[in-house]
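Intended use. Records like the one below are meant for learning the mapping from a protein sequence to its folded structure. Do not use them to infer anything beyond what is encoded.
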Amino acid sequence: MITETISDSEYMSSGHVGCPGCGATIAMKLALRALGENTMMVIPACCWSIIAGNYPQSALKVPVLHTGFATTAAAASGLRAALDLKGDKLTTVVGWAGDGGTFDIGFQALSGAAERCEDFIYVCYDNEAYMNTGVQRSSSTPYGARTTTTPGDSWKRSHKKNIVEAMAAHRVPYTATASIAFPDDLIRKFQKAVSIREGTRFLHVYASCPTGWGVPSEYSVKVARMAVQSNFFPLYEVEGGNRYTINFQGNRPVRDYLRLQGRFRHLTDDQISQIQERVDDDWARLLAKCK
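Structure written out for the chain above:
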């Protein structure tokens, strides 16, 4: 059941080792407020495998299973099966992975679990590169962004993979986007995912990275908000693979969002106009699906 209020309890300690302004830590803090204490986290190699801290210490107040880079969904499937054998239907299993471990390295396991309709929540906190290992490009890195593996004039020339549409094509019960800049919307979607209680639920959370994006740490939430306001990262839900609901309609030019970040500083006005056209086209396609 989705509630109008959330618990005052905190399930993440302040003693984590995330970077200043880390959007991934904000995402986890908000998510756990919605998920509650009856949660088990499966975390692969990613920023959060470091942020949580070294065993036996942890910034998280829920059980955590650290697993291999490619195996988040496989490990979550096994953990769910083990809990079911024990008769534990109350605990929610959550796979928590970055874009590298979701869009790229872990996509095979995720697709397999979604096809089997495994009963867990999978969360991709998306900072649009392999940030933990030095800001290398992933298939989530947007067109035009510069990373350490696309230096100089070799900035990324291909467009970002649409992971939400890929998951919707699996016809999973629930798929949604969320942003750290819209906490009420994020918490509501996590509560909704918990309430479904059957099948794979996928949440794509926009989590800014000041270090990798080239913005001051105090702009972490601001830049995430601008991504939504410009429809660069739209907020919407997909139920059953075909019932679309848009949660926010932006009207801000994408230029404001791009110019704030160092990773896009090299782009010309013409290139920004091309990105705007792509954003407008993607938004029109999303509107058409809602109709």
